[in-house]
Write a structure and sequence with these properties.
Length: about 500
Amino acid sequence: MIEPFPPRCSGGNWFRKTIFRSANRADFGQGRSRIRARGRGMGREAMLTRRDVVKGAAATALAGIVAGRGWAHGKNAPNIVFILADDLGYADLSCFGREDYETPNIDRLASSGVRLTRSYANSSVCSPTRLALMTGRYQYRWPAGLDEPLGRKPELGLPPDVPTFADLFRQAGYATSLVGKWHLGGLPQFGPLKSGYDRFWGIYQGGADYFLHGMTIRGKFSHDLFEDETEIHRQGYLTDLITQRSLSEIERYSKSSKPFLLSVHYTAPHWPWEGIEDEAVAGQIRDSFHYDGGSSATYAAMVKSLDEGVGKIMATLRAQGLGDNTIVVFTSDNGGERFSKNWPFRGMKGELLEGGIRVPTIMSWPGRIAPASENGLINITMDFVPTLLAAAGIQGRKAIDFDGVDLLPDLLGRTPGKERTLFWRHFAQNQLAAMRGNMKYLQMSGHEFLFAIDQDPREVANIRSHHREIFDELRKALANWNADMLPYPDDTFSYELRDNGHLAGY
């Protein structure tokens, strides 16, 4: 069995390798965090500040990016609207198999573009996936990607020195806004305005009551609604407020000659379980994890509000004459939880079974991506950074060593996707996974498996003894990849439900 996670430090060689790999790849670490090395000759704590690591590497990498700016489409550079749902299960949309309610607006979006049926989140929980989306790289390369999710350690977040998705678009002349959930570190050290966005409206933390706009944890309420870096107070259902602000941003953009990147990160259908008619419930919730509430009907109402919001965004793009030149991506940050439908998969949020990481994804680009199409191309959240940069014709994108790949050649029908191996890990239950094509290696709670996902999507038949060579190859590839990622600290927080007694077992 693979050692679940690399040792915290294995001496000076590990320390030097990690630091210089980071500098060479513009892979900048936590701004002021301490990097500890324990080993022969390194008994005392070694510390590099942001200035030490970034001084040479950041300037070189970013100078190359800025110098290479340009739009392949000139004044017709496409606008980007990236819509991210929160904890939406694979089959929670009617166009992906939900039967007890309908999502007509998101279905209509799917009919205008492509349904990606083999889409994966970078993590089975939220903030690690968001870190991968911001950087185009595996989240485990930064300390902020190790807690699953962020929230318990205020010193962790997306370092402002790290080049992001939004940085690259802004430096190419795009206006950039994030509306909704950030969840990559709080003020004053971190935030969207420090990582490439011109404007922000939403919440900084991992979730919020839909009416009170903050979290209650162990009886303590913390309000969390901001415009840029100023706390604000509004009345209304949070999903609707995010939609309304997104519409305002689109209307503002329509008056400008600049192309835009609008990130719409809904909190729906993340707990607490509150539909638009459930304001009275908000006053009764003792803990926002809401283990003692919710129902299938409430969940349906939450997703329907999300669907209505997407419909309004699409209608506003058309009304403002922007629809034909706007790329729209819709996806989720991880698999569903509790009231979600993840069928035909097993597993849920917090697990590396397909139900925890397979997500519904749609991409629409009028005139370029065939409407009402379906594609089984294997993709992962971090792929959308190089993909959208390529779509925008932004030159110099190769200056950053992305782990994600450009999906456009396959999506536009020019070439088939190349086979590659994807990797995941999750600290709870000592989970590790590697997938190449339809073959998936999984390590979970001390057990090892090999599944053929195309024939066995529910991951029931462990075929490792029938395909020992493939099992060994994936196992070795995973061990090599894992050794290249940062190790989990001993005090890592990692989200799970089953082993905490909140849900029954399988």
